[in-house]
Amino acid sequence: MFKCGTYIFLVVWSLRNVSLAEESLRFGYVCLLDEPNPNHCDSFCLNTLLPLLSQIAQGQEQENSLKTETKESLDLMKSQQTKIEDQLRSHMESQLKVQAKLEADLLELQTKLDGKLQTVQTAMENRLQAMQTNLEGQLQAIMAKMNESIVDVADRDLNKVPSDFKRIGSRYFRVIEKAQDWTTAGKTCQTMKGYLASIQNEDELTAISANLKNFACYWLGINDRYNEGHYVSVASNRKAEILKWKEGEPNDKSHEENCVLLIDGKMADYHCNASCSFICQADNKI
Ligand SMILES: [Ca+2]
Ligand SMILES: [Ca+2]
So which residues are the signal peptide here (predicted)? Predict the structure, then answer.
């Protein structure tokens, strides 16, 4: 095998020498190397090889330079890539911070809006509740008044109450702001189809007094004309239901005070010929 390889090498070398010999003949010089020994290379060979070697070295140098430039370019690109990546990372971190702050602000705003919305809703509910309560109260008052009117109409029809008598409490009265003596006042009430009034109880006294002027006297139908100290109603001829005397009354002054008047919510016996306003009642039950 070795021998065979050596033979092939020698053949190639011989062919190259033949080629060189031909080239030498063409250019007018001869270099025949019978033995492939570097020591036998003369100056011509060296002159021939040196440019090649120089080109090879120059090529090698260019290659190294190119490698160096390429490496520098790659390093620069890598550096720029790293810088861009850092910038992108920093930018993304900033964006994330901004996004987080926006989300926090949005949540805070949402919370505030929810709170205000709840406050407004509560206020509206309270207002609606108050309006509803008020309307219910008004409705009840209207219904009570309607019922009262219905009862009043029915009662007036049933008891034949004159239309100009006013319902005070459970009965019908008419206050006459015209000063007359007790007897004339009684007759005036009769012309109105009524009677000089007596009082049923303290609530009725309070209700009637609310319809009278202050410091003014009003005749009642109560008297003790026939039996001193025994007060009766002129309408029913029965004992007076309630007597609420003013301080110091009754005093039957000069033994002539037999008629009862009402002044500022209290009663007093007084001379029947005196002039006072008076109160008529529609019924003769009291
Ligand atoms: Ca008397
Ligand atoms: Ca008196």
Answer: 1-21
Å from CA of 34 to ligand 1 middle = 188
Q: Which ligand is nearest to the CA of 226?
A: 1
Q: What share of the chain is helix, strand, coil (3-state, %, to 5)?
A: 60, 15, 25
Average pLDDT of the residues in 239-264: 98
- What's the gap in Å between 192 CA and the centre of ligand 2? 29
Let me know: does 276 contact 180? Beta carbons within 8 Å.
yes
Q: For tokens 């009570």, what's the residue? A: 144
Structure tokens at 46: 């060296």
Helix (H) or strand (E) holding 112: helix 43-159
In this structure, which ligand is nearest to the CA of 250? Answer: 2
Q: What is the pLDDT of residues 96-140, one digit of tens each?
A: 999 999 999 999 999 999 999 999 999 999 999 999 999 999 999
Residue 22 gets the label, from left (phi > 0), alpha (psi -120 to 50) or beta, of alpha
Q: Please list all protein residues whose beta carbon sits less than 5 angstroms from ligand 2, which is an ion.
A: 251, 253, 257, 269
- pLDDT digit string, tens, across residues 164-206: 999 999 999 999 999 999 999 999 999 999 999 999 999 999 9
Ramachandran angles phi, psi of 180, nearest 5°:
-140, 160
From CA 92, how far away is CA 94, in angstroms rounded? 5
In the chain, what are the domain boundaries?
2-77, 168-281
Predicted local distance difference test score (pLDDT) of residue 25: 43
Residue 189 Cα to chain centre, angstroms: 64
> Would you say residue 278 has pLDDT above 60?
yes
CATH fold for the domain made of 168-281? Mannose-Binding Protein A; Chain A (3.10.100)
Closest listed residue to residue 214, CA positions, set 262, 246, 180: 262
Ligand nearest to the CA of 258: 1
**What ligand has the least distance to the C-alpha of 256?**
1
